[in-house]
Amino acid sequence: MDNFTKKYVESFMAELIAKNPGEKEFHQAVREVVESIAPYIMAYPHLLDQKIMERMVEPERVILFRVPWVDDKGEIHVNKGYRVQMNSAIGPYKGGIRFHSSVNLSIMKFLAFEQTFKNSLTTLPMGGGKGGSDFSPRGKSDNEVMRFCQSFMTELQRHIGPDTDVPAGDIGVGGREVGYLFGQYKRIRDEWTGTLTGKGQCWGGSLLRPEATGYGACYFAQDMLATRGESFEGKTVLISGSGNVAQYAAEKAMRLGAKVVTFSDSNGFVYDPEGMTEEKIAFVKNLKNVRRGRIKEYVNQYPQAQYFEGQRPWGIPCDIAMPCATQNEIELADAEKLVAGGCWCVTEGANMPTTPEAIALFQSKKMLYSPGKASNAGGVATSGLEMTQNSIRQRWTSEEVDQHLHTIMSDIHAACVKYGTEEDGYINYVKGANIAGFIKVANAMVEQGLV
Ligand code: NDP
User: Fold this and answer.
1) CA distance linking residue 68 with residue 76, whole number of Å
2) Which among 142, 270, 317, 404 could disulfide-bond with 341, CB atoms 3.0 to 4.6 Å apart, if both were Cys?
3) Could you say which DSSP state residue 396 is in?
4) Distance from the CA of 168 to the center of ligand 1, in angstroms?
5) CB of 267 within 8 A of CB of 310?
6) What's the gap in Å between 46 CA and the centre of ligand 1?
7) Taking Cα atoms as reference points, which of 178, 267, 256 lies closest to residue 222?
8) Which of 25, 97, 245 to mutate to test ligand 1, by most ligand atoms within 8 A of the CB atom?
9) 262 C-beta closer than 6 A to ligand 1
10) Quick check: 338 and 321 in contact, CB under 8 A?
């Protein structure tokens, strides 16, 4: 990067930080994009004149609201509700809802910003948005979760719709929560539309939507591995998380011949040196989705496995790491452990799980490394396919959806290669994903005028 471009990046970031103080995750996500995009923008001065980046980092709208609800003992609680409608240049706002105690405006804005680029990469007409609450479903009864979802949707419903904003699940929002949210939306609006995605299979949900993020990440990883003449066959894979993305990433990696040896949650991780089987993954799905238990219970069922309280899995030797839990879960020290343990491919299932210092280390070692906005885009892409099926009042078979998903992931990989291949042949997936995602949104914004 030349000095002029560096100065542009630094003054852009200084202004962003001054205007959005304390929003560290948002600053991190924007810096990563601006550093990739700046050299590209310099070559197209009309994008500078049009202040496209300045417009892209300012959400079109942020909705902040009160969510009051009553627990099973009759006690009243109040949580914060958010919806960040980031960018609608290429389609209605689209992005998940996160229920987790850590949720704040910075996390909502970073996710909505990332989502804009990710949705553009999918090739489907979807803008970027994200929402959520600092409510945690963990330890709550089904009735408490239902009352919370109903209160949340009572406000949110006036801001969303099938052609306006289409939310989906994310951390803490799975099939149960989407059901309660949709039920309340339908009751108040008196209309049955595909306004939420990730719906139940018997009421408008697309086949393969639950699997799509994890499966899509594995399809993307297959293409990454193929650039080095490799495949999942016989590789050792570390997976973090044990929720939706982790479960299906593990399932697909295992079916493609890999040995998946870890799962985690926010309390610790389990290491099973014998690797996952269909039966073990079914156990984890039941444990997390039905019994809503903790991953440490895995070792009661499979005593050859070990549980490590308060630790992340990155110290276990492996070929491939797939972080599928949350943001900033691979810090520099974790990345050093991965490198020391022989890891040479990192495919993100979660959003921004790797810190900038850790990414720099992976890239300096010329490892295969893909950012979530590229490799986890299969989830939102299949949400887009769910919207299409709802609009045309049809349902595709899983084979049809899987074929679309596969094609979309390969197209995203090809776009990363096109825009991210450096002079020495190394594929910089961060640069590739950011530029490819940016071009479409930027052109749409220019063509639509100053709105
Ligand atoms: P789930 O709620 O199903 O699972 C989240 C998992 O991550 C759980 O195992 C959870 O453990 C763990 N986790 C959450 N917070 C932390 C933390 N602070 N430290 C350690 N572990 C944590 O969510 P998803 O699987 O849907 O989402 C996982 C990631 O994938 C997120 O980054 C999400 O944004 C991203 N993503 C999800 C998509 C989807 O389709 N669902 C699409 C694209 C990206 P615990 O049980 O202890 O909370």
Assistant:
1) 7
2) 317
3) -
4) 14
5) yes
6) 39
7) 256
8) 245
9) no
10) yes
How far is residue 144's CA from residue 147's CA, in Å, rounded to a whole number? 5
Helix 332-340 / helix 356-364 crossing angle, nearest 10 deg: 30
Distance CA 268, CA 23 (A): 27
pLDDT in tens, 6-37: 999 999 999 999 999 999 999 999 999 999 99
245-271 per-position pLDDT tens digit: 999 999 999 999 999 999 999 999 999
Mean pLDDT of 386-413: 97
Which two three-digit tokens encode residue 125? 């007409």
Quote the CA–CA distance of 221 and 184 in Å, as a whole number: 38
Calculate how far, in angstroms, residue 132's C-alpha sits from the geometric centre of ligand 1: 13
Ligand 1 contacts CB of residue 242 (under 6 A): yes
Which are the contacts of 357, defined by CB distance < 8 A and separation ≥ 6? 331, 332, 335
pLDDT at 1 over 90: no
Q: Which residues of 251-284 are buried (b: 16+ CB within 10 A; e: fewer)?
A: bbbbebebbbbbbbbbebbbbbeeebeeebbebb
pTM value surpassing 0.85: yes
Q: Does ligand 1 have an atom closer than 6 angstroms to the CB of 376? A: yes
Rg (CA), the chain: 21
What is the signed CA dihedral for 389, 393, 398, 404, rounded to 10 degrees? -30
Please spell the DSSP secondary structure of 183-203, one letter per residue.
HHHHHHH------SSS--TTT
Q: In what order do the strands lie in the sheet with 320-322?
A: 259-260, 236-239, 320-322, 345-347, 368-370
The token duo for 91 is 């389609």
| Host H or E run for residue 95 | strand 93-99
The angle formed by the CA atoms of residues 119, 123 and 127, to the nearest 5 degrees, is 35
Phi, psi of 393 (to 5 degrees): 55, 45
Give residue 64's identity as a one-letter amino acid code. Answer: L
Catalytic: 440? no
If one residue of 135, 171, 269 were mutated to test the ligand 1 pocket, choosing by the most ligand atoms within 8 A of its CB, it would be 171
Give which of 25, 21, 14 is closest to 104, Cα–Cα. Answer: 25
- The CA distance from 441 to 57, in Å, is 12
Task: Find the 30 Cα to ligand 1 centroid distance in Å.
Answer: 21
Q: Provide the CA 182 distance to its chain's centre, in angstroms.
A: 21
pLDDT, one tens digit per residue, over 325-375 is 999 999 999 999 999 999 999 999 999 999 999 999 999 999 999 999 999
